[in-house]
Design a protein that fits this description.
Helices cover about 40% and strands about 10% of the residues. The strands form 3 sheets. It has an 8-stranded mixed sheet, covered by helices on one side. The chain has a 4-stranded antiparallel sheet with strand order 11-12-13-14, covered by helices on one side. Strands 1-10 form a two-stranded antiparallel sheet. β11 and β12 form a beta hairpin. α1 packs antiparallel against α3 and α17 packs parallel to α18.
Length: about 625
């Protein structure tokens, strides 16, 4: 081998040992926790290598730099001792972190993240219990010693340096610099997990495994790296733990057969369709003539709100009934490995085929990973679209009109009953439409308005197609938007109004027509669909069935504060006290904060709403921290 590649050869052998050790740690993790994973395929261990690549690229980055830095002093004996120390340091730390979950997973039921270290540092419980941990988990220390010995044997046999000092000439510096730059670029790709749209995250494991098997695909160094700079939420202790369930519980039970039992379910999420854009909500003033006509044949929620303000926040709310009540989006948080009661997963357990379609780039906003966590088996993105060269908008994804026609034909090929979600893309910045449709739709006051008209037209064409298909009359369609967008009207720019989104249900041949002025929110979609389809199940959802007798409300988290609309009031809570109180029946624009002048009845209403909100926050924080968001945990 050329002397130019001596150090690269040694480095690759050391990284090869690291991959072997990571794979052995994954196998040990499975063997000691196999009772949690009843249905495991060999492919999970293979897919895990991608996540190992990320962790190894980060942990062994100093070793990579030290091996390939283009200077001749790399061949001194003292420098090679430094390389040995660097390898064993990174390797030992990776083994220790991986082995934490061989024992700890049985308690947490998820791969360890940085919130673990926060819990260890709270109080002195960990110090007191440490001797018991050493005794109870003795096997972890045996495994640690065994893996360290194996690493030493492999390193001694295959990675012994046989180099001699030789001063570099100009050619040597040039060649070694090229090697350094090329391998550095490869290492950066390794840190990202590939060349995809965004660096892979914990949620991406949902692409390769069912929710309960995701911990096998992951490794603990990876989950710690991905949560290192993300804030943890803290336990809320507004009420004693033995009282919280009576104050508020997210446990929901569907007991009665639904009026739409056995029907297919199609959920259509419209990108950035603020309520202001829909004429059916605004005396006919809008950009959606087809949606307006469809609403007349639907059940419409006039007082509906999103629980978040970004697309990345919408899916957990809509698909699992989990609101966005922390700074980080759930799919980027320390808790994204938790098990959830996604209603697609529940539908799947009752025989539904499940799928998700999005014309944007695969990996955008981690959709492809999260839908797997929610129980959706099949994800289809830009990569799966058959004629992307023809219908690609050049920037964001597939234009809505051709994509919706493709989607119609995809649905026609599915086995019934099916649940499928469509997420549109054309009304996303930079708001492009096909050349043949330019000047066809009202341009309005914002660049977005023309694309609203285009997507509305695409929906019209979609329904013209699917009405001819045999499954159409046996299907219920739920429409909403992922979040709001810029609005002109003052009522859509208040703390509450900025979350206003369209929600309506269209069920051909069904009695389900009319409207409701009660509060409705994204997290209500999950229990409402399960109620309509008559899926008898117990599950965790922070939302309510729109058609039961529970009191309806809407909650959001804004810049570190919580807000709730319930009955005729709206209040803002900073985590300790209510700072704002509004009477919605008299002050829909939220201009008069009454917090310092509450009368008797208003004080009662304020205390009642605050108590409910505290109960929701406490349940939310506690269940996220303790991985208790699923009945089937």
């Amino acid at each position: 081998m050329s002397p130019y590649f001596n150090h690269l050869n040694l480095l690759l052998k050391k990284l090869g040992i690291a991959f072997i050790i990571f794979s052995l740690c994954r196998i040990l993790f499975y063997l000691f926790n196999s009772h949690h994973f009843p249905d495991v395929s060999f492919g999970l261990f293979f897919y895990g290598i991608r996540f190992d690549l990320v962790a190894i690229s980060f942990f062994f980055f100093p070793l990579i730099i030290l091996h390939l830095i283009p200077f001749s002093f790399r061949n001194f004996k003292w420098y090679n001792r430094l390389l040995v120390v660097s390898f064993y340091t990174a390797n030992s730390l990776a083994i220790i972190l991986n082995l934490v979950d061989v024992a700890y997973f049985d308690f947490a039921l998820k791969r360890t993240t940085t919130d673990f270290f926060g819990m260890v540092g709270t109080g002195d419980d960990f110090i007191k219990l440490l001797p018991h941990y050493v005794i109870d988990f003795w096997y972890d220390y045996v495994l640690l010693i065994g893996l360290l010995i194996l690493s030493w044997i492999l390193h001694s046999k295959y990675c012994s340096a046989n180099v001699q000092f030789k001063p570099f000439v100009k050619k040597d510096y040039m060649v070694h610099s090229v090697i350094f730059l090329v391998f550095s670029a490869i290492t950066v790709l390794g840190m990202r997990g590939g060349v995809q749209y965004k660096p892979i995250n914990i949620v991406n494991a949902g692409q390769y495994a069912q929710a309960q098997n995701i911990p096998i695909v992951l490794n603990t160094p990876f989950t710690i790296l991905k949560t290192l700079l993300i804030d943890n939420i803290e336990e809320a202790n507004y009420f004693p733990k033995n009282e919280i369930e009576s104050i508020y519980t997210p446990k929901k039970i569907i007991t009665n057969g639904g009026s739409l039992k056995g029907k297919n379910v199609v959920l259509i999420i419209l990108e950035s369709f603020t309520k202001e854009y829909i004429g059916g909500f605004n005396d006919g003033k809008g950009y959606s003539p087809f949606i307006d006509s469809l609403m007349k044949e639907s059940y419409v929620f006039n007082n509906a709100y999103a629980n978040g303000q970004r697309s990345i926040e919408a899916l957990p709310c809509i698909l699992t009934g989990l609101p966005q009540l922390m700074n980080s989006p759930y799919v980027l948080s320390n808790y994204t490995g938790n098990k959830l009661d996604g209603f697609p997963d529940i539908l799947k357990s009752h025989g539904y085929n499940t799928s998700f379609y999005h014309g944007g780039a695969n990996g955008t906003m981690n959709f492809n990973g999260f839908v797997g966590l929610a129980g959706i088996d099949n994800y289809y993105g830009l990569n799966e679209y058959p004629t992307k060269e023809k219908d690609y908008d050049g920037l964001w994804g597939i234009f809505d009109e051709p994509y919706l026609q493709y989607y119609a034909n995809e649905l026609n090929a599915k086995q019934q009953p099916f649940f499928s979600t469509l997420f549109t893309v054309s009304s996303h910045h930079p708001y492009t439409i096909p050349n043949k449709h330019i000047d066809k739709f009202p341009k309005g006051d914002l660049p977005l308005h023309e694309t609203i008209g285009y997507t509305d037209y695409a929906l019209k064409r979609f329904f013209e197609t699917v009405k001819k298909m045999p499954w159409f009359n046996n299907t219920v369609f739920i429409f909403t938007a992922d979040h709001s967008a810029p609005s002109h009207a003052i009522k859509y720019n208040t703390r509450l109004g900025r979350y206003a989104v369209p929600v309506f249900i269209y069920a051909p041949t069904s009695y389900l027509k009319g409207e409701s002025d009660k509060f409705f929110q994204h997290i209500d979609i999950s229990p409402t669909i399960l109620g309509l389809t008559g899926i008898k199940n117990e599950f965790i959802s922070f939302g309510n069935n729109a058609f039961d007798e529970s009191e309806k409300f809407s909650i959001q988290y804004v810049s570190g504060t919580y807000q709730i609309a319930i009955g005729k009031i709206f209040l803002i809570f900073d985590g300790e006290k209510t700072t704002d109180f509004y009477n919605l029946s008299e002050d829909s624009l939220l201009t008069n904060n009454l917090i310092n002048e509450l009368n008797g009845q208003q004080l009662v209403e304020k205390n009642k709403a605050e108590k409910l909100l505290k109960g929701i926050i406490q349940q939310y924080n506690d269940r996220l921290i303790n991985n208790n968001l699923s009945i089937s945990k």
